[in-house]
Amino acid sequence: MNLGTFSVSLAVKDIKASREFYEKLGFEVFDGKEEDNWLMLRNGTTKIGLFQGMFEDNILTFNPTDVRGIQKALKAQGITFTLEADESTTGPAHATLLDPDGNAILIDQFV
């Protein structure tokens, strides 16, 4: 199962302060807008999303090319989703689930 690219989506209190902090660690902004309260940063192959006011907890994020196929395979293994992608559609969609410790996982197909 190919989950695609991985990033950590961080729920931040001050996006400007967080951007400045991560830039000191060598990250560079490659997507998003600070005025829209979200930014994507990268350092080599490591990606971090900064999101202010969009969700309460940090999220593990995967960007596959087939969220519906992954969802179907995981459901067949008994995985329960907190939000399911509509399997009757195509294109961009997302699904969410929790790991056994309550950590949120977002499977987000954006193409």
Brief overview:
By secondary structure, the protein is of the alpha+beta class. The protein is 18% helix and 42% strand.
Key descriptive features of the protein:
single chain; 111 residues; 8-stranded mixed beta sheet; 8 strands; 18% helix
Enumerate how many helices there are, as a single number: 2
> How many strands, what sense, and barrel or not for the largest sheet?
8 strands, mixed
CATH superfamily: 2,3-Dihydroxybiphenyl 1,2-Dioxygenase, domain 1
Ends distance: 18 Å
Structural shape: elongated
Q: Helix and strand succession?
A: EHEEEEHEEE
Q: How many domains, in number, for the residues?
A: 1
What is the CATH topology assignment? 2,3-Dihydroxybiphenyl 1,2-Dioxygenase, domain 1
* CATH architecture verdict: Roll
Structural class, by secondary structure, is alpha+beta
| Broad CATH class | Alpha Beta
Give, in spatial order, the strands making up the sheet with the most strands.
2-3-4-1-5-8-7-6
**What level of helicity do the residues show?**
10-25%
Beta-strand content estimate: 35-45%
Radius of gyration: 15 Å
pLDDT < 50 stretches: none
How many beta-strand elements? 8
Mean pLDDT: 97
